[in-house]
């Protein structure tokens, strides 16, 4: 595994589109780094700069283990790539697809056979070796794409939304498999996704991107619990928001107030997660009230939307044993440790 770094890498396309502002990014050897952000924020462009499919604007450098690879084309960087669209060769068998990179590198037939066998076993697709690609399901195709990318023993694995085309259940299964695989191989991996749940599950660290800029870099927990900006706070998970003003240790808002000893005097808005929001217990002195605007039964819990006179209702999850009626008044409590101001 090699560390990878981007130094001052910007990208302006020939039509003038500025896809990436100058970024600096260091990926540790063996780390899984996730690039996360909405469509068009520059994730794929960043990945393609690392792969050597694009050149950074003048002054940008890409380093693999300290070696400057900026001028090296993709075939000399020895990276494995996996795409949303699989990009497999439909006229070749599974085994031939996996062997593709080995053939390009003129490895002997015996070596190719051995490596293909190893990759089939690694991805647990031995029985698919002689199938043609169009006989495979989406999940099987993505396993083949992973096997093909890894067969050449790449210095890094680059994945661009590899699970986006799959249905939810399969996405969960493959997310788990990819996580185990990356851990087992200890390979440096850069994983692009617009799905925040996927990013949090897979990333050692997450880079949140916004219009070609890095909005925040950190471990999933840091990003979730200590978002650096409103953009990050709202992109990762769900964030509840109350607007109002501080009165000493109390934040006053249309729905009532929230007591918070550390409340900054200038606060005009406080933020907190759904899991730090709950229905007040019977007899508990509640300071915040609202009316139920939607209640979605989710089996083990109810996802409740409570209108407290804000632009958006507050969201919380509550045990399903009690039913909630639309328009019913509820008293809420907010856990102090979850409060933040940005
Ligand atoms: P993401 O992968 O986050 O969706 P991209 O990196 O693909 O974003 O694109 C970032 C921006 O650059 C977008 O505005 C996109 O339209 C633009 N872009 C991407 N590739 C090209 C290209 N070859 N020529 C011009 N603009 C491009
Ligand atoms: Mg993309």
Automatic annotation (TrEMBL):
The keyword Cell membrane applies. SMART domains: AAA. The keyword ATP-binding applies. Residues 4-236 form the ABC transporter domain. GO terms for molecular function: ATP binding. It comes from the Bacteria. InterPro entries: AAA+_ATPase, ABC_SmlMolc_Importer, ABC_transporter-like_ATP-bd, ABC_transporter-like_CS, Mo/tungstate-bd_C_term_dom, P-loop_NTPase, Transp-assoc_OB_typ2. PANTHER family: SPERMIDINE/PUTRESCINE IMPORT ATP-BINDING PROTEIN POTA, SPERMIDINE_PUTRESCINE IMPORT ATP-BINDING PROTEIN POTA. This is ABC transporter ATP-binding protein.
């Amino acid at each position: 595994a090699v560390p990878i770094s981007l130094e001052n890498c910007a990208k302006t396309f020939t039509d003038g589109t500025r896809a990436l502002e100058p970024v600096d990014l260091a990926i540790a050897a063996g780390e899984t780094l996730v690039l996360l952000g909405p469509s068009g924020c520059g994730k794929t462009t960043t990945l393609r700069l690392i792969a050597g499919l694009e050149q950074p604007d003048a002054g940008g450098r890409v380093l693999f283990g300290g070696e400057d690879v900026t001028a090296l084309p993709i075939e000399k960087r020895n990276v494995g790539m996996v795409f949303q669209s699989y990009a497999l060769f439909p006229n070749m068998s599974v085994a031939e697809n996996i062997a593709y990179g080995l053939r390009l590198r003129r490895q002997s037939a015996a070596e190719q056979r051995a490596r293909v066998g190893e990759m089939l076993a690694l991805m647990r697709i031995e029985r698919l070796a002689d199938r043609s690609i169009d006989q495979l399901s989406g999940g099987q195709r993505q396993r083949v794409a992973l096997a093909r990318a890894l067969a050449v023993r790449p210095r890094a694995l680059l994945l661009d939304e590899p699970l986006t085309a799959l249905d939810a259940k399969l996405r969960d299964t493959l997310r788990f498999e990819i996580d185990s695989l990356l851990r087992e191989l200890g390979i440096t991996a850069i994983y692009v996704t617009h799905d925040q749940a996927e990013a949090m599950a897979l990333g050692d660290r997450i880079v949140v991107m916004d219009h070609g800029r890095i909005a925040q870099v950190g471990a999933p927990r840091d990003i979730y619990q200590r978002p650096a900006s409103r953009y990050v706070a709202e992109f990762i998970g769900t964030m509840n928001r109350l607007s109002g003003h501080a009165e000493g240790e109390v934040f006053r808002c249309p729905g009532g107030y929230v007591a918070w000893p550390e409340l900054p005097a200038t606060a005009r808005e406080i933020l907190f997660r759904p899991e730090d929001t709950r229905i007040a217990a019977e007899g508990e002195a509640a300071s915040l009230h609202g009316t139920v605007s939607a209640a979605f039964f989710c089996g083990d819990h109810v996802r409740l939307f409570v209108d407290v006179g804000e632009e958006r209702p507050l969201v919380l999850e509550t045990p399903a044993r009690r039913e909630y009626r639309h328009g019913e008044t509820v008293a809420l409590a907010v856990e102090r440790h979850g409060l933040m101001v940005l």
